[in-house]
Design a protein that fits this description.
With 384 residues, the chain is α+β, with helices and mostly antiparallel strands. The chain has helices at residues 47-56, 88-95, 126-130, 139-146, 164-168, 196-202, 260-275, 298-311, 358-383, and strands at 2-4, 9-10, 61-62, 74-77, 82-85, 99-107, 114-123, 133-134, 148-157, 172-178, 184-190, 206-209, 230-232, 238-240, 249-255, 281-287, 291-292, 295-296, 317-318, 334-335, 337-342, 347-353. A 6-stranded mixed β-sheet has the order 1-22-21-15-16-19. A 5-stranded antiparallel β-sheet has the order 6-7-9-11-10.
Length: 384
């Protein structure tokens, strides 16, 4: 069972990470550097310092071009039911940031699946590359709209076909397939006025339609084991499944450094980790953009280190292991996602999509602890 909160960044690749922000959000995805740092009780500060933590999350500027999707050999979106490879010439344009690849999505009201999901390619001038926008407000949306659209690739519910021009920013649409149930249609869209060489490159994209995975579909759930694994934290310290033995209940928070809601709740999780220790609860974070496939991403690790320092996390930030914890992490569909594990490495309780306040997490953890205790009492009774 998955419980969803609207404050989350959607889109997760199965195996390889490349995602975006939930459509319609008022905060730029680059809000990663905004951290509502919590001030320790009794700490003496002046008034300016007191006010700073509350303002950090929404004040200041960010450079959107630093948070575009990165060029890589292949992309696979489980929620879109789509995998594809890009031609080398397009990857080179993305590497130099002459062309940027951006995500866009809208999710159904119940949060279970996409209304549509797409990635688009646009050209970017030097001025746009260096531009900075406010973290809050519509600065990011206006920056994105200012880019010159070349094309898009995506899946769209059949009811949205008449809105393809509006959704894609393109004028021509080539149908490349449909979903298994026929409810979604896949299109490669082109802006006929774009650079001819870039259009030719987009037409070389090799898409593969796969089974769409809904956000409430879980390949692993309560009662499944995360098994044996070896990984390390962002500072290089080794961790294994033995980390779960250090507490009765471990809260596993899966996130990415670029996800604003993920970053916003880290100070709450740090406080929660301290408050719940006496109850046998610990928090660990898994930073998904610290790897590309199964290889370490040094840039992602550095961002995670800076984030841990800025937010005073106080709990470990782990890299995904090569087996993605027995496949559990490969099925994450939105950031942040949180699930719970007992001291034997077995998944327990509910899965939670989206960020929450400290008070909300305290209530959830207490509920999960109560459920764990009840389950343990039941198991002990069966053994007698």
């Amino acid at each position: 069972m998955r419980k969803i909160d609207k404050k989350f960044c959607a889109w997760m690749m199965a195996g390889v990470i490349t995602v975006g922000a939930m459509a319609g959000g008022g905060i730029a995805p680059a809000q990663v550097w905004a951290s509502a740092e919590k001030q320790e009780e009794g700490q003496k500060t002046d008034k300016a310092t007191d006010e700073k933590p509350e303002k950090d999350a929404v004040e200041g500027t960010v450079r959107p071009s630093d948070y575009v999707l990165q060029p890589q050999e292949s992309y696979s979106y489980a929620d879109m039911g789509l995998s594809f490879q890009l031609p080398q010439e397009l990857l080179e344009k993305m590497e130099s940031k002459e062309v940027v690849m951006l995500p866009d999505a809208e999710i159904t009201e119940d949060g279970s699946k996409l209304k549509y999901g797409q990635v688009s390619w646009s050209t970017m001038t030097e001025e746009q590359k260096e531009a900075e926008v406010d973290k809050a407000g519509d600065g990011y949306a206006k920056w994105k709209e200012s880019l010159a659209r070349v094309g898009a690739l995506g899946t769209y519910h059949k009811d949205l076909e008449k809105k393809l021009d509006e959704l894609t920013g393109c004028t021509e649409h080539e149908k490349i397939g449909t979903s298994e149930d026929g409810d979604y249609i896949y299109y490669l869209s082109i802006n006929k006025d774009a650079d001819k060489d870039l259009i030719a490159s987009l037409k070389k994209i090799k898409p593969e339609i796969t089974r769409m995975v809904s956000y409430d579909e879980e390949e692993m759930g309560e009662g499944d084991s995360l098994g044996s694994f070896t990984t390390e934290d962002i500072n290089g310290e080794e961790y294994t499944e033995a980390v779960f033995q250090e507490a009765d209940l471990t809260m596993v928070n899966v996130f990415a450094t670029w996800c604003g809601p993920c970053v916003d709740e880290i100070p709450y999780l740090a406080e929660l980790n301290e408050k719940m220790k006496d109850k046998g609860v610990q928090v660990i974070g898994i930073v998904m953009d610290t790897v590309k496939g199964t290889e370490k991403d040094d840039e992602g690790i550095k961002k995670a280190q800076i984030l841990a320092e800025k937010t005073k996390a106080g709990y470990p930030f782990l890299l995904p292991d090569s087996g993605y914890m027995n496949g559990r992490l490969s099925h994450v569909q939105a950031f942040p996602e949180t699930f719970f594990v007992d001291k034997n490495g077995k998944i327990v309780g509910e899965t939670y999509s989206g960020s929450r306040s400290l008070e909300e997490w305290e209530e959830i953890v207490n509920t999960e602890l109560k459920g764990l205790k009840t389950e343990q009492e039941k198991e002990d009774g069966e053994k007698k």
